[in-house]
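To the wet lab folks,

You asked to see what we're planning to order before we commit. Fair enough. Below is the target structure as tokens, and below that is the sequence we designed to fit it. If anything looks off to you, flag it before the synthesis order goes out.
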């Protein structure tokens, strides 16, 4: 999963929001870690869930 630093949403690697954020503003973590941190799925890319992130 990809998380834009400073936000509370996780994204698939293919999410256009992640692509727009660039490399430096994005953190990579597993889905389990994202959910454990209380993050919620992005409404744009949630239909493109990945099993490994
Ligand atoms: Zn997204």
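Sequence we intend to order:
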């Amino acid at each position: 999963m990809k998380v834009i630093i400073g936000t509370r949403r996780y994204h698939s690697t293919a999410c256009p929001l992640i692509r727009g954020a660039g490399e430096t503003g994005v953190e990579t973590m597993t889905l389990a870690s994202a959910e454990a941190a209380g993050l919620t799925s992005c409404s744009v890319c949630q239909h493109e869930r990945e099993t490994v992130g």
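Structural context that might help your review: The chain has one domain: 2-48. Strands lie at 2-4, 9-11, 26-28, 40-41.

Thanks,
Computational group
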